[in-house]
Fold each of these.
Amino acid sequence: MMKLYEKFADEIEEAVRRGVFAPGERVTSVRQASQQHGVSIKTVLHAYALLESRGILETRPQSGYFVRAKPPARVMARVAKRTIAAASEVDVSGLVLSTLRSIGAHDAVPFGSPYPDPEPFPWRRINQYANAIARRHASWNLIDDLPPGNPELIRQIARRYAENGVPVDPDEIVITVGATEAINLSLQAVAKPGDTVAVESPTYYAMLHAIERLGMRAIEVPTHPADGIDIDALAAIIARRKIAACMVMPNFQNPLGFQMPDERKRRLVELLSEHEIPVIENDVYHELYFGDARPSTLKNFDTKGLVLHCASFSKSLTASYRIGWAMPGRFRAQVEKLKFLNTLTTPSVPQVAIADYLRQDGYDRHLRRVRKLYRQQARIMMSMVERFFPPGTRTSTPQGGYVLWVELPPRVDSMKLYRAALECGITVGPGTMFSTRNAFSHFIRLNYSYPWTADSEAALQRLGTLATELDAHAKENDK
Amino acid sequence: MMKLYEKFADEIEEAVRRGVFAPGERVTSVRQASQQHGVSIKTVLHAYALLESRGILETRPQSGYFVRAKPPARVMARVAKRTIAAASEVDVSGLVLSTLRSIGAHDAVPFGSPYPDPEPFPWRRINQYANAIARRHASWNLIDDLPPGNPELIRQIARRYAENGVPVDPDEIVITVGATEAINLSLQAVAKPGDTVAVESPTYYAMLHAIERLGMRAIEVPTHPADGIDIDALAAIIARRKIAACMVMPNFQNPLGFQMPDERKRRLVELLSEHEIPVIENDVYHELYFGDARPSTLKNFDTKGLVLHCASFSKSLTASYRIGWAMPGRFRAQVEKLKFLNTLTTPSVPQVAIADYLRQDGYDRHLRRVRKLYRQQARIMMSMVERFFPPGTRTSTPQGGYVLWVELPPRVDSMKLYRAALECGITVGPGTMFSTRNAFSHFIRLNYSYPWTADSEAALQRLGTLATELDAHAKENDK
């Protein structure tokens, strides 16, 4: 059943499509809209946020909501629709690793990095806690650190979820070496070699890696740049064939940046529950929302323990400590055992140091600062792409996280752009990494977590020029 | 071809068997033997060490070599011969994890622990390096830490191997989260679900875990408590069926403690090379030798790149840092890629801290101290088991490491002993953990890394009494 704010949002979208509100024009203010339509302020805010996520509206500081100049959602949705694929074996990791190596080795402009700029993170502070812990102990006994992990860290993680309205039993949490391990173990707990796993398309390549590594097959489901995985398309796939598990990233998906609306999260969990299909929820960007509050998770709608929720501190606090966790629902015992088999324990001092840090007040302050930074830098990057890139270029409208998904004119080969940019000391994430079948060969992913400087502006301009040249060259060849 | 020292050792063993040297009697001194037999001092030392490893001789500080009162090797060899098994699916990890939990939760006497007493390890020193590194950096970028790992740590590891006569190319080393991850990745690089993997029997249970987790099947090969895996038995198995890989622990095997003689290491590698079978060498105890020098590894005899050598700092420096590595021979690229997929990177500060520690002079001094400690404590534990345990009890003769393998009278059920001991606050490692088929149900493994105190002596005495009672009770029931 459609919620009130969704209905209201659809009405406004229809008005925009019909030209009632022109591109660049300010739409009815929140207060006015609430009075005119007899709905609450909250409903209007929800609706406008949804429209922002769909790329229909944009906000301007202190000015309200405006119709975007080029609504990208429809364009990208069409592209996404084309990506239904037969299940295919996966070999993406070679490309990803060599891309990462280029970034590391060349000290290049890190638009292509999958990691956040570590600079704004409280690295020194956490290290101080680590040092204090180390100094308090004459030695450290591994036997005290068996899975599931440090009890105090587990308690702190559970507390944060509870504060944000996500129902969590601390006994469900298993600490892992980053979310990467959590995802791997979760997948292994619910599927076996040869099984088919449904993923978003485009999808974060770590999802494809996990599937590849365990000898499973990925089936890619069209994914809307604002609404998330196409639930009807997924239902159609489930009706046709046996799906062992589903892997999604409902909040600030990498690369698309959307936040799945609550109603869609609920429908997704209901569909999968009906068929008893476990779903692995990658929620590593959960703290990096641009809205007013932490979004819900699939866990909020899970009644059968089928959601295996995976997350980490790598995107919001420190990546180098490699602390992640799984909340695997009814698969908790299997995941804990697999953790023991895979890496025995997760290093303890980092766990305790993060627990100590979380007990203090600084985390929320740090996060508020980072969220504001990323929100600002997302807008700058989007406007700069509009300015520098060839006509026909479209971008996603990230609702959180720190990556922008850019659709180039169809003739531009993103691998060629990647190589040309690298020669200029600039990296990008080629779209081919996000699928098993070259589905996004004219897309790139850009990282906007780094501060915007004259250098980065020049680099983005250069990138736009390269894309324009590649487009022109391809056009020439077409003749 | 038999080496000179082996021939010489066989002569002495024959003399002992014939009663030329009586139990408890001192054998010819090394210098005298060298003169009498016209062989070098080194050859005599090699031969005596071999006889010690076979349980024929024992050394007493400042006194020389003596014939052991009860040569255990023959008895244990017979037991080992019975353990040829059909390949079987593995489920050992549940037992292991619950055993470890009991140790951790009960603060019990840690005879059952698989980990070394962390007290003599330079924990504070390494933490100081870690803190210094953390303070030198304002932030830490994950992208600089991609596999294979920190270059300076890799260089230090390669240097130590080179100094000990093990041929190593630094480019071959991949840093992992402990040896556990190295073993898992190595196994996955060479075998696939459903494949059969040959292991020692008894074997270190992490080997069984890795096999279990990847859906492979273990075939257990009889393993001599002094000489290692029975190469003829392995050859017979290879002749009968397809073996995808072999997993062994040629130095100070857990639980048996033997050091495979060089000649047998060579023969093992030759046999496997002939059939193109990769071999995973678990060498985590390599630094904890009781002899004069670091033993050779299978790598020393590998001409085809079929040895995947796995090790870590967990047994010799710090377990809680979780730093291990693989040298995967011709499978290097696969292992590196799997590392990236499994846990992305290994935390960096711990890597750099250990590299900094290794560059200083302290490691060898620390190791000399620990080796001496373990050698002494092994002897104490062996003599105490002789003193307190029921007649018919036999022990291994560890040549390194920190665990003793104890064969109880056949009627004693080690799981019953484990449970009875736990009620007294004492832990042991039940023999059933070391096989998939209850093959060692009257064996236990004891950890002697902890300092010998009046309390531990009382605990071992209590354990002996419990074993005696269980034996008597079982005898009663047999009637």
Note: The domain at 123-363 of chain A is CATH 3.40.640.10 (Aspartate Aminotransferase; domain 2).
Amino acid sequence: MIRKTRLFTPGPTPLLPAAQFAMAAADIHHRTAEFRALYLRVLEQLKTFVGTKNDVLLLASSGTGAMEASISNLTSPGDRVLVLSAGKFGERWTAIAKAFGCAVDVVSVPYGQTFLLEEVRKALKIETRAVLMQATESSTGVRHDVEGVAKLLKKQESSALLIVDAITGLGTTHLDVDGWGVDVIIGGSQKAVMIPPGLAYLSLSDQAWEATEVAQNPRYYFDLRKERKNAQKGESSYTPAVALIAALGAALDFIAAQGGGDLAAGRKALVENAETCAAMTRAAVEALGLKLFAPVFPAAAATAVYAPEGVDSGVIVKELKNRFAAVVTNGQGEMKGQIFRIAHIGLFDYMDTIAIIGALEQVAASALKLPGFAFGKALAAAQKVYAERTGAKKEAAEEALAAR
Amino acid sequence: MIRKTRLFTPGPTPLLPAAQFAMAAADIHHRTAEFRALYLRVLEQLKTFVGTKNDVLLLASSGTGAMEASISNLTSPGDRVLVLSAGKFGERWTAIAKAFGCAVDVVSVPYGQTFLLEEVRKALKIETRAVLMQATESSTGVRHDVEGVAKLLKKQESSALLIVDAITGLGTTHLDVDGWGVDVIIGGSQKAVMIPPGLAYLSLSDQAWEATEVAQNPRYYFDLRKERKNAQKGESSYTPAVALIAALGAALDFIAAQGGGDLAAGRKALVENAETCAAMTRAAVEALGLKLFAPVFPAAAATAVYAPEGVDSGVIVKELKNRFAAVVTNGQGEMKGQIFRIAHIGLFDYMDTIAIIGALEQVAASALKLPGFAFGKALAAAQKVYAERTGAKKEAAEEALAAR
């Protein structure tokens, strides 16, 4: 059989064709009026996409670059920070903070779980300079309670900055950045915005900008004050990734189109899209008799699933790749071999989702011994979820229309 | 929900990305050594793809252009031809032959059926100059018996040329062009070779080339003798569609890769691929309780399905388009509103096929009143067909390996 390669990975995610075309056509110099117009437009769109009144800055780096920038620009050696860690990317916060000389406290929970706010409260100290967390932990498919942590900091009258890696959270989960009081929010290009890796973006609250004035950690390439000054003129401090920025503009146009031309509505539609794909997948996986890795706070970005007892999850990843050219990811860190992850972040639709479930049934039939297995069971479960979610909405919309 | 547009139409078919890239990069002049090398290579590959020792010619035209070329180059006004007509494209043979002054006999069967060889035999006259037929009738999804007709002509010692429109037949059905004695075989670019419309190709037997010497019908753009002379030098008579030819080269490379680098094996794999997608679709449609339009000689190029009693098939086409951006086709000619057609020709894989079946279940659930409908039934039927077809082969291959 023909096998078309399809990414079902939580980054890189499938590329938007309109963004690919924009990228291919981006034959422009970056110190020109043409580029400045593009850059200012994309930065403005990003503010709406992130949902903040603050400036959003774009960096030619991976998401980790923006994580580093938020540490190097906001902390000084010896500063105390609190990391909420529940997976590989939580661990990365610890590593970066340590590299920049911070004293790191950690609230750590096992992979697949999330934090109790009470534990966070206990770990918070008067001198805690920043709380570092993920909106969703890509390595485990768990959503963390950003709103809860933000509220806790307010309630405790903590002066700690809340720094959120929302690299897989943006576009897959509801985030009220300014309303909740998130001080730094970080995104990446190869995620919900459907373009290749190479760009990171972040925005800082007023309080965070104040912190950049006193922070003593060294930074040059990631100097955010310099970057903001330039960005306001439509310039980047160093050579920008022009083609990716053109692609990002096209992708944000596409997302706006999903909201009938309104980018904020489009972002909401994108989140709902991921939620529906995730709900279909969870229902299917449970109908197969497989166990969800994160049944309690599942992220819509990706669904993590336990391999059956005695089966290496790498076998499932490999079978999906070899037989269907469907690329799903293994567990990361300590979960490698135990779970596999199917993504819903970005450009996935009903057709993609039902197809990967079909492929998973085929792999289950040939490579897994699941009691009570029958072809169509997982697919039927996903079909029902889709029909309920879209049918209910459709009826509500029709009723609203009839009520006018 | 996000909806990615996907063609499930029997031409144009989904584009091969590698061909799209080759097309975009094709910035070359056609009267250069560079183009001649490309052209000679593609013409040579086409011979293998068609499965003939004869020259294959490429025309910058749609498939209908090559149909006309085969009439204008091989017949004279007043010549008697026999058209085997069972759909819109059979009717097109009649129209073209009449336009060039031929006396047309027709064996006509209703849409959805194919001819009895006995009827063909009865209609054949001593003076019949050519028999015109389709390998598969795209408008109805029916496969015709090219081998049977070829054998019949031999048995009857007929001097009639056998001219076969294999525009949707090539790459979806087994055709032994030289072995059976097909005199003219015709293909189009927007079909199994996965590139956009704009190119037609055809090859002629020695007997057909002889006929071009005596044919009196006028032709200039489609003068095949001139075209062959030029093609042998790597030239086209008139400006060739360079980008499409570059795309075709990339597509034929892809097809060869499906056969482990062997283009003839790749063509066979492509046929089997379409057959599996078609078998999955037929099983699903029947499990839904819908009726196949061509249950007896179904083509692998596309599956034609009756809409349920009292439902316009346009409703199903529209729902698939509006809700899933999945483009299937309505019936053509007199079948419009009665059937819809799902394609398998070209770049379709398991994932595409299971997804369109899922979408069809959703449409059935919301828009059709099918007795006994349940989510997953059609999908399960397709899953079983896929598992049987690919599993059986896999086991056989493993046994063969074990037997060494």
Note: The domain at 6-11+262-403 of chain A is CATH 3.90.1150.10 (Aspartate Aminotransferase, domain 1).
